[in-house]
Specification:
about 240 residues, mainly alpha, about 65% helix
């Protein structure tokens, strides 16, 4: 659970983009949030093992032994298709580390670029159909309502870390966006609550685990996001 909560929140690429788009303070804040939320999720789930969350009963079906990367793994929904990626095909054909690096660089560029484009698209659509004052009020708001609104509004959205950062950049950038001052609570609610409830993460839980595990995951993500957002809001820090 700690891995599933932490991995959508922070990565080297994500930290670099956050640092460039929103500044090092926001990047470090999200990094700390990822560590806190991972520890919170891991220890809480460990405590709840005795209350219906043990490893023997959380999966939708008994998992057969074997390697998920094996092309003959019997459960098709869980079979990994990473062998079809460009970098793996280049490695099998050439065994050249430099060419493999270039292939991985290209794959990462496409992945990050896709999510950044989604974030910009979401921003453009939001500006087109939602009054700009409403969005600015939520992102700049220092009260309680913006934190709750953003935390729960991101649950049904596909809002990975790169997408959330790109969308916020369009609002806070004085050169290319609205130049608003992003409040601490609202920023954490969006940058933490959005990625941990992104649609691919939800799909994984629905495919592999029983409903109680998905409910626990959502409870951890929502409560952890609210704790972090209100915690940052109360701290005497300047972002």
């Amino acid at each position: 659970m700690a891995l599933l909560v932490t991995s959508p929140l922070m990565s080297p690429a994500g930290y670099t983009l956050l640092n460039w788009e929103l500044g090092p303070t926001w990047a470090n804040a999200v990094l700390f949030s990822a560590i806190f939320l991972g520890l919170f999720a891991g220890y809480l789930t460990h405590f709840l093992r005795r209350y219906g969350f043990s490893e023997e009963i959380i999966f939708r079906q008994k998992l057969p032994e074997g390697n998920f990367h094996d092309p003959d793994y019997p459960v098709e929904e869980l079979r990994c298709d990473c062998g079809k990626q460009l970098s793996h095909r280049v490695d099998r054909c050439t065994h050249n580390p430099w060419l493999v690096f270039l292939a991985k660089f290209w794959e990462g560029t496409l992945k990050i670029g896709k999510f950044a484009l989604i974030g910009i698209t979401v921003e453009v659509i939001a500006l087109q159909f939602i009054p700009n004052e409403w969005i600015s009020m939520l992102l700049e708001g220092t009260g309680i309502l913006p934190i709750f609104a953003l935390t729960f509004a991101t649950i049904p959205l596909h809002m990975p870390q790169v997408t959330a950062a790109a969308m916020l950049y369009g609002f806070v950038s004085p050169e290319f966006g609205e130049g608003i001052v992003l409040s601490k609570g609202a920023g954490i609610a969006l940058l933490v609550g959005g990625p941990v409830t992104a649609l691919p993460v939800m799909a994984l839980f629905i495919a592999m685990f029983r409903k109680r595990v998905l409910a626990l995951y959502l409870a951890i993500c929502v409560s952890g996001t609210l704790l972090l957002a209100f915690g940052y809001r109360l701290l005497p820090l300047t972002f």
